[in-house]
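Hey,
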Amino acid sequence: MKLHFDLRYASHPEDVKNYDTQRIRREFLIDNLMVKDELHLVYSMYDRFIVGGAVPMEQSLDLIPVDALKAPFFLHRRELGIINVGGPARIISGNQEYELQFKEALYLGSSERNVSFHSLGKDQPARLYFNSAPAHQSFPDRKVDKNMAEVVQLGALETSNARTINKLLVNSVVKTCQLQMGLTELKPGSVWNTMPPHTHARRMEAYFYFDVPADQAICHFMGAPDETRHIWMSNEQAVLSPSWSIHSAAGTSNYCFIWGMAGENLDYGDMDVTTPGQLR
């Protein structure tokens, strides 16, 4: 099993004003998350949030505690959210087993146990995207399929942002300490997400884009509302969004993305909205 680990430090918004394209991508873009028979972890100093990807194919992949965690188990004082964007998966957590189909989610609470990822078939391997945050309390594990999600329809075709928001791992669906995750699907003809854009000073966020056609791309916008920057992204890439940064994007086609958040509160509506006319 190959494991790749990367540490990302926090950046001050005044410093980011001076970043060129290469530096912005190095600090905030996360690529190569989905590589067969490899486990990829990025540990961010923004709320000590972990972004990860796993594609078990010829072998299972164990979620081991990397040295930087200084813990006996990965879930020692951590919680974990997993969403499958590939073929059927089996996740073994301690003495429990869970099967995840496409776009289904699993929450694992903090505890002393081993976690491993498996595919149910090599021809369609699981593609497991996951987020993890520190946890001060242990909540029960729970699988969440799309029928259990809190679903919100937003936007319109006239503004090119008609989309379905599936709130999967949020406080109204499953108890968590601080982690929240969900999946947004843009309808054909729509390309904009998270409009109007916003920040939330008490939470950070990460976006993972998938179902992006091979010849298409995503332009993700970040930065302070009056000092924005952009990052061009491809399928199955993720991006870190500090609390001071907007997080919005337009694609050259419709697409899906997974949002994950962690921070001081679980209020999904805690946003400081910026209208498009205020952006600079």
